[in-house]
Amino acid sequence: MAREFSVPPVVFPSNDGNPSVQSQRRSPNVAPSFQQPSPANAGASTDIPFMSFDIGSASASSSFSGPVFAGSIYAPGGASFFEEEPPLLEELGINTRQIWRKTKSILNPIRVNASLHEDADLSGPFLFLMAFGLFQLLAGKLHFGIILGWVTVVAFFLYVVFNMLAGRNGNLDLYRCVSLIGYCMLPIVIFSGLALVLPQRGVAIFAMEAAFVLWSTRTCTKLLVDLASCGDEHRGLLAYACFLIYALFSLLVIF
């Protein structure tokens, strides 16, 4: 049986030091009464700085507003921002339609439209050279560096030969020379793709090599004569130089 003990009252001195004023300790079984703060004191700040907050202001600012950027394209009138931007390929100077027209003109060796090649570019030639290197890679030959190096050397060679023949009247620059040689590499690229399914060291592949080399030579010679001045009187020498260039690339396919 539990025994009950009487707890003596605790006497605390008051502020004026009078011990007569006593405050008794409440019994443990008496629940303390809490007084809710009045609405007037709800927004009052407490003594602790980080515990002071205003519920009313928090509820008023609870509405979320998205970030606002200066000159944002998400503005109501900014939807036409991307519409006014030119295509990425056009910004890089790559005209796919022009490349396709030049490619179709090379595919017709009888009627080559030289006016399409007045605007020289290197996008089409680079595409053809990479395709040529890819076909060589499928044949087990890693010739990417050799192809790019040889194109640079032969373009400079043809540029020097033409300007020596034409003298001061020649208007063939090195950039256009690289563009013409690269576009006229298309028959050699086709030949390298067909050589993957043809027997090596056979008569058929040598006959096909001669046909595609002559195709490239005729096309390149015609473009040089039509686009550059003083080229008609040196057609034979220019054709010989072009024949050596494309015969050199065809040897990469056979050997």
TrEMBL record:
Belongs to the YIP1 family. The keyword RNA-binding does not apply. InterPro entries: Yip1/4-like, Yip1_dom. Residues 15-39 have a biased composition (Polar residues). The chain crosses the membrane at residues 144-162, 174-197, 237-254. The keyword Nucleotide-binding does not apply. It is found in: Golgi apparatus membrane; Membrane. GO terms for cellular component: Golgi membrane; trans-Golgi network. Its main location: Golgi. Residues 106-253 form the Yip1 domain. This is Protein YIP. Pfam families: Yip1 (PF04893). One of its GO terms (biological process) is vesicle fusion with Golgi apparatus. It is a multi-pass membrane protein. Residues 1-41 are annotated as: Disordered. Keywords: Membrane, Transmembrane, Transmembrane helix.
